[in-house]
Amino acid sequence: MGAEQSQLQQDAPEFGQDYISFFVNGKEHNVKTDGGDPEIGPQYLLVDYLRDKIGLTGTKYMCREGGCGSCMVTIRSTHPASGREILRSANSCLLPLFACDGFDITTIERLGNRKVGYHPIQDRLVKFGGTQVPNVKLSFKFTTVE
After folding, report:
1. pLDDT per position as a tens digit, 89-137
2. Which of 46, 48, 54, 111 fits a disulfide with 95 by CB distance 3.0 to 4.6 angstroms?
3. In Å, what is the CA distance from 135 to each residue of 37, 48, 95, 124, 128?
4. Which CATH architecture has domain 19-145?
5. Which are the contacts of 102, defined by CB distance < 8 A and separation ≥ 6?
6. Distance separating the N- and C-terminal Cα atoms of the chain
7. Do residues 100 and 42 touch, judged by C-beta distance below 8 A?
């Protein structure tokens, strides 16, 4: 961990807070950290929350080692030292849910789907015969869109 990452923000939540708060596709989620749900603990992963708790099954899991890219999400957060906004992709199969406090998470469902229409990048992949291993294509879409 770099020196800038080890600095705590002045307005960081107090220790002992019994919930985390984050956004998924624009909707706020508050999750108790004090045993409100016996399944959710320090080792519970974001991919499992997305799929099992809120039904966003577009985020896949295959290897559960961060190698395949099928679990990619985009995270918007604030740098703890500089206060600047950071946008990055992350493997949700490696990210503990409790580490998501304050994040704004975007999944593949927010890009587009059959019901609401597809994102232009999704359309172009289909139009021009974009063929790849599905999980690599998902990872590519996410890093290209943002």
Report:
1. 999 999 999 999 999 999 988 887 788 888 888 788 778 887 655 555 4
2. 46
3. 30, 17, 18, 17, 18
4. Roll (3.10)
5. 21, 22, 77, 78
6. 25
7. no
Domain ranges within the chain, ordered by starting residue:
19-145
Beta bridge partners of 105: 24, 75
The beta-strand segments (E) located in 33-115 are 72-78, 85-91, 104-106
pLDDT tens track for 32-91: 998 788 899 999 999 999 999 999 998 998 899 988 888 999 999 999 899 999 999 999
pLDDT band of residue 11 (cuts 50, 70, 90) is very low
Q: How many helices (H) and strands (E) does the chain have?
A: 4, 5
